[in-house]
Amino acid sequence: MAKTYFPNVDKIPFVGTSSLKSGLNYHYYNADEVIGGKKMRDWLRFSVAYWHTFGQQLNDIFGDGTAIRPWNGLTGMDLAKARVEAAFEFYDKMGVDFFCFHDRDIAPEGDTLRETNKNIETITDMFVDYQKQTGMKVLWNTANMFTNPRFVSGAASSPFADIFAFAAAQVKEGLDTAKKVGAENYVFWGGREGYETLLNTDMLREQEHLAKFFHMAADYAKEIGYTGQLLLEPKPKEPMMHQYDFDAATTIAFMKTYGLDGTYKLNLEGNHANLAGHTYQHEIRTAREAGLLGSLDANQGDKLIGWDIDEFPSDLYEATLAMYEVVENGGLGKGGLNFDAKPRRSSFTPEDMFYGHIVGMDTFAAGLKVATRLHDDRVFDDFIKDRYASYDEGIGASIEAGKEDFKSLNDYIIDKPQSALLAATKSGRLEELKDTLNHYIIDTLK
Q1: Is the pLDDT of residue 136 over 70?
Q2: What is the DSSP string of 253-306?
Q3: Is 282 a catalytic residue?
Q4: Is 102 a catalytic residue?
Q5: Which of 27, 52, 102, 282 is catalytic?
Q6: What is the pTM of this model?
Q7: At what angle do helices 161-181 and 113-134 cross, to 10 degrees?
Q8: How do residues 350-402 score in pLDDT, each as one tens digit?
Q9: C or N: which end of the chain has fewer Cβ atoms within 10 Å?
Q10: How large is the angle between the packed helices 430-445 and 316-328, nearest 10 degrees?
Q11: What are phi and psi of 98, to 5 degrees?
Q12: Which of 103, 105, 247, 340 is catalytic?
């Protein structure tokens, strides 16, 4: 890395909370600090998203890009190579251990898939060289099967067999790439796997094709000896009106219907959760309790905007409750926290790339600290245990043991007065719990 792309930024240090003013430093993320028996870096496994950080020009649906970047003006493979050099300088200065990428982020397409694959292989050769020098790892890679017009009606769910075949070949290259760069996961993001109207859609056939595609992918991964974790990423709407992988529960049901739940886990995103009408914690809890929590994309949306804006996370409450689920899960295993996020359009300097990641990393590091205390003190566990205590003995235990039926329950309850039924309930103490959460956040981070 002879050329310096970010001369105004040094390695980002940890300075603690002695100063309230933000800067090019970490207030809460101290990579080697041990929390709950593990280093922060091992709990969080932060990853930089190649597409947003090195490919995004900060355009939106109403305006052109505003980003000022050191590689502006370059094109083709010259641009692709410069971004690799800049990326590894950025990783080093941020002190992160992982990055993620789509195949089309890293190299331009050729006229044929063969030409495209050659471009990708040139860039991934550079990745491997830099990885050997720096120790950087790939959290996951994936295939962009949503941008090109050929995917107008989907990829694996396309009604056109040639497009299905192209998608399969594209993912074959993606899995070969995953093995080459040592990716710890491979993600399937079904950007256009859905439909606009049932008037022209055979929904059952499309979902069967999609499931067949995932089975083929798993078979090929096994054939080449790729041992990374395979992940499906739920997302509602945008761009398809009806996505087949709408949320965690929908995707889990799909996986169980087609026998994929023993092979795949879930990659979940905060902004996607909100678009599905859920909290981030809800989606993580749903996957965790199903034993299918794989990895997380860390971002947030604006509750006043009805689409996915991929903002860097700064909400301490959301991050704390997300990390509470991760701590309850014992960590993320091969997964991690990938910043599927970009600076705002008005934050267009190269330094803003660093500030965006700093606020995201500090927010989740702070959330980890609070979540660990909540877990250790059993703040929610003890309350929930007490709330459901009626199932630990008597009629409740008998219900859970499968010893009761409607007739026996009718005989048990039919003569109980209303006063006894009301006495059997307890307050949910929602306000008390929220107040307690406030105190834990304030006290832990003071």
Answers
A1: yes
A2: HHHHHTT-TTTEEEEEEHHHHHHTT--HHHHHHHHHHTT-EEEEE--B--TTSS
A3: no
A4: yes
A5: 102
A6: 0.97
A7: 20
A8: 999 999 999 999 999 999 999 999 999 999 999 999 999 999 999 999 999 99
A9: C
A10: 90
A11: -135, 160
A12: 105
